[in-house]
What does this fold into?
Amino acid sequence: MEVLAKNIIFVGGKGGVGKSTSAAAIAWKSAKSGNKTLLVSTDPAHNLGDIFKQSIGGKTTWVANNLSALEIDPDIETEKYIRGVKENIKGTVQSSMMEEVHRQLDTAKASPGADEAALFDKLISIILEERAHFDKLIFDTAPTGHTIRLLSLPELMGVWIDGLLQKRRKTNENYSQLLNDGDPVEDPIYDVLRERQERFSKAREVMLDGRETGFIFVLNPERLPILETQKAIKLLDKYHLHVKTVIVNKVLPDDADGQFLLQRREHEKQYVSMIEETFQKQERIYVPLFSHDVTNIEQLADFSTYYEKG
Amino acid sequence: MLEHVKKLIQFYDEVLSMPHRQEIARELRDEDDLFLLLLYSEMIGIPNPIYYYTLELYPYMIENFHDWHLRMGMDKSPLTGIRCC
It folds into this structure.
């Protein structure tokens, strides 16, 4: 699996196809081969803790040799952000207004989009800062829609902030030329926005760098996951994010016996050929359906052996 | 004598540019207002993808906030939290 050589890997796909298990297996494999690995879940419905049978939560937690995991918690992140803003305000606002401002900021925590923005912010700081402490970052993302949104945010926000900055720059230039005898005006608002923009564009660069970052979609040999994955890959292509690998999970194994499974496999054949047809450009990795859930490290290790093919 | 003339010319120049300076200041203030409106468009129901990140700009605009929302034609502060009026 070529994609395993990348330093940052995003694992996406429809709900229930086995994203978390696949991401955990990839992370496990990477840690086994001596890379210091961080497995990050961005899905609000976190499963990593269940797979590793330990609570993980919003702080980077040691799971096994060379392997740490983290389940991003938007609440913790918004809390942190708002606290930072409050700290900054201390020096600038009259004490009489302080309480009002704090109240305002606390309501902002619950504003629509706050969770998403906080999650995105954490994702960026992992990509920009945590990368220094790990060899590999594996992201277990939310169901397809969220993932596409998350991956397209840098572009959207970048465009928005660019527009604001341009406007602000123009005004500042006019101020300095027309009313300030050519001396530049100090504008903290511009500086803060610029810092934001730089972070977004740096993160975007890393995500778009094909040598650095890889995208994997997980699907099952069934009609809906195939169609959804096809759409998702097309959409991500538009954002210049190219999915080069698909993991086809829960394929009926050859030794599955009985009349019922025989019929089922006949059906599945159509879907497998549909997958071969649809995802010609992607590397396809087939993982069989197991007779049991993957619930411990040994099974995870077993699961990850299928990534060695191809 | 030359000094006098110079002073006179300078004075004349200032008198001429006074109204212009005011006009320019007003224009630029309008631009500032529009900028704030773009930042805080959520308050009047226009979605803003970076609303969350505008919170960190609070410290720098809070002092001017009152005058701004009056100019924008909102008699009462649109921010429930900031009751400046």
